[in-house]
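Lecture 7, part 2: worked example. A protein chain together with protoporphyrin IX containing FE.
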Amino acid sequence: MNAAAHLQARTLIEVYVHRNTCLISTHHNRKDNSEKNNEHAKKWIREKIGTLDAHKDYIEIWKLSSSYGLNDFMQNFIYALSFPNFVVTDWGAKAVWREDGGKVLALSTSRVEQTGSANALWWYFGPNDERTIKSVENINNLHAHWAKQYPGAFSYNEDYVYVCAFAAITIHRLEVKIGVPDISEKEKIASHLFWRDMAKLFRAENDQPITGYPDSFEGLVKFCEDYESTPRPFFERANLVVSALHGQFVFRFPPPQLHWFGHQLIRAMSLPTTLKTVQIDPPDPMAAEILPKLMGYIFWQMEENSDDPTDAYIEERLQMSSDDKARIRAEHKELDARFPEHFISKYKNDAKLVGCPYHAMLTAADSDFRTGSDQGSLEELERNAGVLPGQQGTCETDRQFMPACPGSYPGTSPSILIAQSLQTPSFYVGIYRSMPTARAPFLFCLHTTEAE
Ligand code: HEM
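Predicted complex, written out as structure tokens:
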């Protein structure tokens, strides 16, 4: 490597490592090596797990292995890696992206917070605690709300089993991927049993209980692999959701000069099957090779150089002063306000977003839905779904950020679309031109299904 390239690579790693260790180590008292030699780090978590019985104490074991050392960066990173796998279906992507980008576009960081804090609460208090039961009930209600808008989308039992199975094996998969020692057999048994109990709290559409949760940790891995290797057609909305999820993480954390690196990192850590299904480019081969190892190195160094944290993430969240909560909410709001414009600026020239006046028309017509009579109840549902009080997800402003479709492509022939909005009694007519590629008809018509 020449000197300039070497310097560039070093700077890049330093900047990224610096940002991450600052962010990751909120709960870690980092020590330099000389200190480490003098003082033995206090590793109480592993010690405590060692005294527990996987079959009896699985809730405690899951809590110990998942609730400490978390912070906003890790929450967001895990969210950006996990959530894309849950929207590979047409119905999943549609319920999330909806007609206008939904929360993943308009309230992108607030959504991370809602999901992250709900997860942290479940992990810490466990499936038998009334706070978890109430929180999951709120999520069930939120799902039921959206099921009314997208009938059928929330009815697939296997989607729920997949989310639970995926959550149960995530730490194992990440550790294997980055090359650090895998979780113990005891933790595998505990993860399986913890999520078996969590799965019982969820309801699919029409209040259906979730069935068919696999009966071992290996069964969970197999279930996930089968789900992920199922061939699925490409859906534009899935691409948009995943682009927004990756984009949100990259927009929030690395500085703009390193956005490319953030994307490579996320892609290098993602499941290749999911990237393929939603047609996101794979990572550069070198990134795929190096970045998981770099993450492994960072985690290993942190593990070696820090004490185990004493406070769980959710304890800190719940105990925060109202001023601190307000400050965090304001930070999220500020990111939420800036992200859609950033996203559109990145994607407006993407063939997947350009060329569809029909799209713009439907987006504009969506205002009836936004101000509709059940908007108030949605706000209430969303307030209940989060941990920071007052957090909610109305999307009053998102429409103005949607890309205007220029409506013409040189060398293509125009088509006419007639569609009925799901939310209003109106019909919309649009003329659009498709790209001269095989994918074209599917690329542009976000709304073809609704148009039927
Ligand atoms: C066990 C399985 C599932 C879990 C643990 C789960 C978890 C969550 C959580 C924590 C939220 C709150 C996020 C927020 O308010 O921003 C949420 C909201 C939501 N979930 Fe799920 N979910 C599951 C299954 C599904 C499925 C199968 C779908 C789609 C078919 C879905 C679509 C949605 C939607 C549309 C929202 C509303 C937030 C938004 O507009 O993006 N979820 N879910």
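Residues 322-347 form the longest helix (26 residues). Residues 1-41, 355-373, 390-452 have pLDDT under 50 and may be disordered. Keep this in mind for problem set question 3.
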